[in-house]
Amino acid sequence: MTATESAHIPVIDLSAFTTKGTDFAARQQIAKEAAEKCSINGCLAITGHGVPPELLAEAFDLTRRLFDLPKEDKMKAPHPAGMVPHRGYSAPGKERAFQKGDHDQSDAQRQEMLRMTQDWKESYEVGDDANKKDYNIWLPDSTLPGFRARSTEIFNALRELSFAVLEALIMGMNLTEKESEVITRVHEGPVGQLRLLHYLPLDVDHQVIEEAKRLPAHTDWSSFTLSFQDATGGLEFQDRHSGSFMPVIPRSDAVYLNVGDMMERISNGLYPGCTHRVVLPKVRASIDATVRENGIVKAPARYSVIFFLTVSDEAIVEPPSSLVQRDGMARYEPTTYKDYAEERMKWHYEDYEQKGKESG
Q1: pLDDT at 357
Q2: What number of other Cβ atoms are within 10 A of residue 228's Cβ?
Q3: Cα 95 vs. chain centroid, distance in angstroms?
Q4: Residues 6 or more apart whose Cβ sits within 8 Å of residue 10
Q5: 3-state DSSP: the chain helix, strand, coil percent, rounded to 5?
Q6: DSSP 8-state code for residue 81
Q7: DSSP state letter for 319
Q8: What region does 233 belong to: left with phi over 0, alpha with psi -120 to 50, or beta?
């Protein structure tokens, strides 16, 4: 469905969790507000996030310099053909996004359509250097001096923010102390993933630009995702009640959160996984100047800095008993992040792997 302005993305001020010395009552109030607002569509705009604006500016500058490199330089740190490690550089055309449940569809044509979805982005994944399974794949420092050090600094800052967000979401569920500790524990260790993204500029027929997607509608399989985007915008969150999509307006003072599949399971559906997509800029009167004689619109490039908070691979992901009792049922069967992620990663990279086998 098309985007709508009628629904809105709720805003919370997280400074009670990102500022030292804040009293417990203030944190409880913000946690309650976060839970109420996040339960609507699984998305929030978060101010008071504590990430210095200078670091964010550096993150976007680093992202642009990275993707401005010649392809042969970026391919010095290639994402492997397999699913692990999910690190390094991915060229356009490598990934396929899909929605929860799509891999269960029995319609072969639907599955083929998913596989043929165009991918107009390139990305670079960075994790914790302590993670020996999903180990980092770094560019040589001579290719982009300072890239490893700067991206590690950005990773650490956004992971610290993600833990503050996690604390607020856990507190908002009104769990026992032991249950809260269990959820915190499954997010410990070398978890998390920084993704630097570049959506390529595109030539698009102006008559179909409203329907064109840079990234089809999907959910993430993380606990949640934190997104900073440039002024181009294009990110949209779905209002699950109407089915329409809400534009995520770029804000210099806010980071956007969308709940992933793991947190939906942990919260027994209290925090629903947020379906989201990336679309091209909308056609407006001012865009006429960019329409060429053949009716083609030049859609500008788009950059974003993303952080996924994940759970540890072998941790059992299931809702705590107090939530199950409160809801009268467990809405999800226990799983591990490893099993769940591997199933979804096969769909993201299976075509690519097959091509590699055929060409190799």
Answers
A1: 36
A2: 22
A3: 14
A4: 37, 38, 40, 43, 44, 45
A5: 35, 20, 45
A6: S
A7: -
A8: left
Name the amino acid, one letter, at 114: L
Question: Which residue in 64, 123, 73 sits closest to 93, CA to CA?
Answer: 123
Sheet holding 276-279, edge to edge: 213-218, 276-279, 235-238, 245-247
- Mean of all residue pLDDT scores within the chain: 85
> What b/e sequence results for 150-183 when a residue is b if at least 16 CB atoms lie within 10 Å of its CB, and e otherwise?
bbbebbebbbebbbbbbbbbbbbbbbeeebbebb
Helix (DSSP H) and strand (DSSP E) numbers for the chain: 10, 16
Task: Give CA–CA dist 332/269, Å, rounded.
Answer: 9
CA distance 251 to 254: 5
How many alpha carbons fall within 13 Å on the CB side of residue 100? 16
Q: Which residue has the tokens 């997607």?
A: 213
- Picking from 336, 335, 331, 227, the residue whose alpha carbon sits closest to that of residue 277 is 227
Beta bridge partners of 125: 88, 195
Read off the tokens for 190: 């070398």
The Cα 217–Cα 101 span in angstroms is: 12
Indicate the pLDDT class of residue 94, thresholds 50, 70 and 90: low
Smallest CA-to-CA distance from 266 within 166, 157, 196 is with 166
Q: pLDDT tens, 106-115?
A: 455 445 444 4
Report helix, strand or coil for 43: strand
- 10 Å Cβ neighbour count for 131? 18
Structure tokens that stand for 276 in this block? 């989201």
Q: Is 130 a residue whose pLDDT tops 90?
A: yes
